[in-house]
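A.,

Following up on our hallway conversation. Structure tokens first:
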């Protein structure tokens, strides 16, 4: 999962891009990057690490220009090398920088075609670099011998991208001396929205993965980019848009609402906060149906994502809600940690139990989901060590049983505790006295209740049904081999700001 942002302003955008990426930090903690443009030069800084660690004063001073894009990353394809941090850059037909959230399901095929037919070389294992080169090649074909570029030329190239690329992609790109382009795959799997604000110099525009980044920078949210749609904002602040896909259908990833998005975001018209409240209500009904004579003394959330659902669940159950764990905010999310050994080590560093809330009580621990089960298992043991008599566990999402292929780090089926196990087996594995899962139909209803125009979500991690229709067992085995923990490399090399001169 990644976060993307783009800005077209009338004053330098380096600080706003930095601030926006900080707001989107929850979407990726592995690497960060910013590229800006002034005249015919691009200025690029990217490296592994958190936003605050990648960008120092000397970098910010050198990121000059009134337009730019940024990215925060954690890898689901490729490896952990800083060379695969985004944005990526090509210099033909124009200087183009691109940042991408998602995953291409036909990346290998595209890579072969780019080399054999398009004569473009890919330097990394990132599908984002592939996407950039596909777009750059199609733009070059559209332009032909022309030097001038128009919004129509750009949209024609995006149409070809949709024809060639499959999978999930929310994209922001910067074309040197021209402006910012943003587009979304025909299924709208990954979120992206745009906003604007009036200034004395004129209108400024922003594109971002979540509305919270738009709000925090004092822009007004205009709307989400539709599936298959592209928008282009030129240097003068003029905005153009066009539907570039033949048969678009909005089927967004439901896991954004379960786990990834901030609760103060609005995705495709859906309040993440309200959706999570409803998850708690529906989960309470399931618990009462399965355990009508429950002996739960207290409901305790596992910080932070599950708090909203847990609070509403406690109201519906009529059981006391309390905070039983204190979180160390200087430890990253274990779900994003690169190795199983590191995940296990970090849970105890990240959470500490308040013994008074557990001693001699039957506790219901609530989490947003159970993926690998590592965190759940250790937290349940922490509750027992703190003196709990019984430890029940509830997940605001259904059992995660299948790999994700659209940009979430759930690639290997054997790493998923829900794969091939029933609820009782999972409960024994994580050490819970009882385990409760959200029903899939209830989750869907909780998310879409106030936005009935969305008739379908990508729920593939729960039911194995992939909305792009091109995922088979052979592909799942392929990505499992590529993306398991042992297959990833590491590179801690540092990079300064790179100034790129374009003769276009």
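Then the amino acids I'd put at each of the 504 positions:
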């Amino acid at each position: 999962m990644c976060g993307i942002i783009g800005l077209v302003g009338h004053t330098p955008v380096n600080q706003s891009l930095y601030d926006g990426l900080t707001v989107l930090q929850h979407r990726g903690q592995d690497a960060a990057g910013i590229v800006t443009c002034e005249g015919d030069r691009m200025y690029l800084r990217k490296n592994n690490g958190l936003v605050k660690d990648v960008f120092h004063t000397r970098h910010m001073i050198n990121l000059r220009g009134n337009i730019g894009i940024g990215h925060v990353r954690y890898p689901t394809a490729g490896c952990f090398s800083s060379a695969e941090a985004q944005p990526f850059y090509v210099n033909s037909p124009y200087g183009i920088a691109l940042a991408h959230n998602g995953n291409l399901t036909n990346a290998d095929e595209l890579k072969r075609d780019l080399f054999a037919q398009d004569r473009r070389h890919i330097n990394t294992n990132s599908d984002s670099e592939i996407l950039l080169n596909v777009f750059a090649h199609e733009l070059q074909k559209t332009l032909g011998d022309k030097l001038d570029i128009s919004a129509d030329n750009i949209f024609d190239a995006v149409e070809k991208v949709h024809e060639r690329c499959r999978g999930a992609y929310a994209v922001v790109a910067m074309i040197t001396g021209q402006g910012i382009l943003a587009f979304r795959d025909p299924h709208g799997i990954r979120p992206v929205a745009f906003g604007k604000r009036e200034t004395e110099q004129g209108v400024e525009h922003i594109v971002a993965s979540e509305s919270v980044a738009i709000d925090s920078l004092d822009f007004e949210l205009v709307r989400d980019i539709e599936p298959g749609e592209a928008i282009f904002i030129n240097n003068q602040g003029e905005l153009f848009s066009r539907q570039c896909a033949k048969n678009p259908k909005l089927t967004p990833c439901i896991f954004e609402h379960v786990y990834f998005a901030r609760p103060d975001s609005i995705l495709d018209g859906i309040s993440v906060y309200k959706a999570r409240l409803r998850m708690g209500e529906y989960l309470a009904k399931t618990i009462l149906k399965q355990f009508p004579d429950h002996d739960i003394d207290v409901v305790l959330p596992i910080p932070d994502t599950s708090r909203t659902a847990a609070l509403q669940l406690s109201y519906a159950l009529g059981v006391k809600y309390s905070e039983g764990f204190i979180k160390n905010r200087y430890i990253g999310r274990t779900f994003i940690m690169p190795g199983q050994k590191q995940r296990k080590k970090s849970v105890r560093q990240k959470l500490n139990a308040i013994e008074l809330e557990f001693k001699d009580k039957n506790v219901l621990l609530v989490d947003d989901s159970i993926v690998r089960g590592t965190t759940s298992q250790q937290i349940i043991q922490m509750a027992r060590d703190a003196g709990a008599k019984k430890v029940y566990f509830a997940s605001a999402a259904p059992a995660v049983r299948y790999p994700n292929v659209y940009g979430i780090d759930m690639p290997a089926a054997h790493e998923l505790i829900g794969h091939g196990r029933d609820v009782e087996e999972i409960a024994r594995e994580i050490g819970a006295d009882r385990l409760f899962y959200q029903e899939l139909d209830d989750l869907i209803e909780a998310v879409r209740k106030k936005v009935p125009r969305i008739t379908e979500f990508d729920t593939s991690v729960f039911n194995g049904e992939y909305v792009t229709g091109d995922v088979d067992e052979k592909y799942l085995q392929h990505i499992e081999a590529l993306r398991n923990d042992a297959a990833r490399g590491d590179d801690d090399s540092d990079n300064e700001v790179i100034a790129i001169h374009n003769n276009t």
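Residues 271 and 492 are 38 Å apart (CA to CA). Curious whether your intuition agrees with the design.

B.
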